[in-house]
Specification:
By secondary structure, the protein is an all-alpha fold. The protein has one domain. It is built from 8 helices and no strands. The relative contact order is 0.15.
């Protein structure tokens, strides 16, 4: 594991900020590159003075947005017509599609924000947002906020751990657990507030 982390640190150092941007864009699309192996090495390099942590976080965040755009626009302008035309062959009726649209019109912001924090989901959340035609500005805003938080957490892990490189993935997994707990609490609060607004 120590050799693997060393290789990642060397690779991120060689690619620089454009490499972080590109790798996080790929991670945010359908290409399975875990952000847990991109941002912590950047934080470690920042701790050594070889990178600027803020610039690394910004590159990771905007890279995530670009990758999310790829899924969002593909689903909005290519997937939507195909789904409406051929969806009935896989039991996706216009009625079911309308329900997805309605859900994202009502809860798209919280879904996009939380989705950016969750493993696996962060790769896919842009697809239903695009299919439902979620407002582009809101999609961009909540994607940036969610991706920014996650990139900051991972970069901070690499920065704090410093020379103990073998602990990077271990602490990244711990971060995932805490993010899952935070997301669950946020969903509960959101549901309660939404029900309260409906009653009033």
């Amino acid at each position: 594991m120590h050799d693997a982390i060393n290789w990642l640190v060397t690779t991120i150092g060689a690619l620089g900020y454009p490499g972080i941007f590109l790798l996080m864009a790929m991670e945010s699309s359908v290409i399975p590159i875990p952000s847990e192996v991109v941002m912590p090495p950047a934080g470690y390099l920042a701790q050594r003075g070889e990178m600027n942590a803020l610039i690394a976080i910004l590159c990771g965040t905007f890279g995530s947005l670009v990758g999310a755009y790829a899924n969002y626009f593909a689903a909005r302008y290519l997937g939507r017509p195909l789904l409406l035309k051929y969806g009935r062959y896989v039991w996706i009726t216009e009625e079911k599609f309308a329900k997805v649209e309605t859900f994202f019109h009502k809860h798209g912001e919280i879904s996009t924000f939380i989705g950016r924090l969750l493993p696996v989901v962060r790769h896919l959340i842009s697809l239903p947002a695009g299919l439902a035609g979620m407002n582009h500005v809101r999609f961009s805003l909540y994607t940036l906020v969610g991706a920014g938080i996650w990139c900051t957490i991972l970069t901070a892990i690499g920065y704090v751990i410093g020379e103990k490189q073998e602990l990077i993935l271990q602490y990244s997994h711990h971060a995932v657990i805490w993010v899952l707990v935070f997301s669950a609490v946020l969903v509960v609060v959101y549901v309660k507030l939404h029900r309260r607004r409906q009653r009033s």
